Amino acid sequence: MAPAQPEGLPAPLDGRLPPSAAEGSAGRALSLYVHVPFCAVRCGYCDFNTYTATELGPDVSQDVYAADAAAEVRWARRVLEDSGVAVRPLHSVFFGGGTPTLLPAADLAGILAVARETFGLDDGAEVTVEANPDSVTPGSLRVLAEAGVTRVSFGMQSAVPHVLAVLDRTHDPENVPRAVEWAREAGLGVSVDLIYGAPGESLADWERSVRTAVGYAPDHVSAYSLIVEEGTKLAARMRRGEIAPIDEDDQADKYELADRILAGAGFEWYEVSNWSRGTDTAEARARRSRHNLAYWHNQDWWGIGPGAHSHVGGTRWWNLKHPVPYTHRVRAGESPAAGREILDAQTRHLERVMLEARIRDGLPVAALDDAGRTAVAGLIADELVDPAAALRGTLVLTLRGRLLGDAVVRRLLG
After folding, report:
1. Beta carbons within 8 Å of 227's beta carbon, 6+ residues apart
2. Positive/negative CA dihedral, 32, 38, 43, 44
3. Cα separation, 294 vs 128, whole angstroms
4. Long-range contact list for 348-354, CB < 8 A, 24+ apart?
5. Chain center to CA of 182
6. Residue 327 class from Cβ within 10 Å (0-12 exposed, 13-18 middle, 19+ buried)?
7. Locate the Radical SAM core domain: which residues (predicted)?
8. Res 172 pLDDT > 90
9. Nearest to 13 by CA among 363, 337, 412
10. What is the per-residue pLDDT across 268-282, written as a single tens digit (0 to 9) for each?
11. Handedness of CA 287, 195, 394, 343 (dihedral sign)
C-alpha cells in the first residue's frame, strides 16, 4: 500500500509554474525521473507506488505505459516553455519503480529516445535503469546500452536466502552475478542496492551480503537501513508479533561494518547511504550517481509517471498516485499533478541543510544561519563533523556523525 500523498495547493490543469520557478533556471541542472509502477510481486517491506499486472485494467497495462510516459515528457517541455523556465539538455535520466525492466527494453529505449528528442542530453549525461536481477537478459541489456543507458542499478538487497524471504524478495540470488556480468559485457556501469536490518538477519548474514556484493566489483553500492512503513505486510507481521521489531543499535553496527568493508575494498562514501569505487577521489567521484546528487543539491527535476514528484526552482508538485486517473489526465493533455507547493525561504534553507549535510562534499558553513554557525563548535567537540573540513568552511560528517545525522541536522537548524 503506497503512502498517502501530501496535502498542498491545487495544481493548475495547464501545469504552468509560477514566475519564481524561472528565476536562475538557466544556471541549474535539469534531470528526468521516469516512474514505472509495475512489479511482478509487491515486496512485504515496500510502500512505493507500485502495482502488479492484475491490479490494473487494460487502459494502463504494461503494454501501453511507454506511450503515456512519452506523452508526459513532451508535455513537460511545453509547460517549461510556457512558464518561462529555461529548457536545458538533461543532466541525468533515471528509470525507477517498481521494476522498470518489466517493460520491454525497447519501450524503455523509446521513452529515452523521446526524452533525447524533446530536451537533448548533456555531454556525458548519466542514464540509469533500476532492475530486478531476474528481469534482464544479455539481449535486453544490450538494447538498453545501445539506446544510451549508461548504468544499471540491481536490487540485490541480500545474498542470504532467509533474509530475502523475510523481505518477500523473489529473485534468485544466484542470478545477481550473472546479471552483473551481462551488464558489464553490454558496456554498462553497475550499481547494487543492499538493505540491512531485516528481522532475523545476523551480523554474519549482513557481512556475507556486503562481501558478496563487493566480490561482484560493482562501480557503486547503496546500502539502506530497513524502514518498516505503516500499511506494508511487514508492518502487519510486526504488529502480530510474528517477527521482531527493528533494532536501531543492530542497524548502527551493520552500517559501521558495511563502511569498513567497503572502504577496505576501495570504495569511498559520498552520501550517507552510498559508496563509489575508485583508487582515488577523482576516480570514485566519476562513479557517483549524478542523478542522486542532483536531488541532494536540490537541482531541478521532472518526475514522469503516477505518483512521481517534481521540483523546479522552489516549486514542488506530485502526480496523481493511481495510474488510471493519471493516464486519463495525460491523454487529455492536462496536468497529471495532484497538488503542489511553493517553498518559502525558510523551507528552502531547511531542506538545503538536511540534504547537503548528508554528502561528503559537505555543507558550506556560510549557508548556515547564526544559530547553525554557533552549533558548529559543539558538533566538532562531539566528533560529529570533521574539524579540519569545518575550519576550511565546510561541514563534513564523521562516521559517528553519519550514524547520528538527524541529530546533527536538528542542531544545525536550532
Report:
1. 45, 246
2. positive
3. 13
4. 348/298, 348/314, 350/413, 351/298, 352/298, 353/409, 353/412, 353/413, 354/409
5. 23
6. buried
7. 24-268
8. no
9. 337
10. 999 999 999 998 888
11. positive
CA torsion 105-107-113-118 (nearest 10°) is: -150
Chain mean pLDDT for the chain: 93
CA torsion through residues 253, 288, 98, 319, sign? positive
Domains of the chain: 19-296 (3.20.20.70), 345-414 (no CATH)
pLDDT of residue 4 exceeding 70: no
Instruction: Give 337's contacts (C-beta < 8 A, 6+ positions apart).
Output: 11, 15, 317, 318, 319, 320
Measured in residues, the chain has a length of 414
Dist CA 287 CA 283 (whole Å)? 7
The dihedral region occupied by 132, where left means phi > 0, alpha psi between -120 and 50, and beta the remainder, is beta
Of 221, 322, 234, 304, nearest in space to 268 by CA:
221
Per-residue pLDDT of 336-350, as tens digits, reads 999 999 999 999 999
CA 127 to CA 2: how far, in whole Å?
A: 26
- Please, what's the b/e burial string for 144-155 (b: 16 or more CB within 10 A of its CB; e: otherwise)? bbebebbbbbbb
Over residues 170-195, mean pLDDT? 95
Measuring CA to CA, which residue among 403, 409, 314 is closest to residue 368? 409
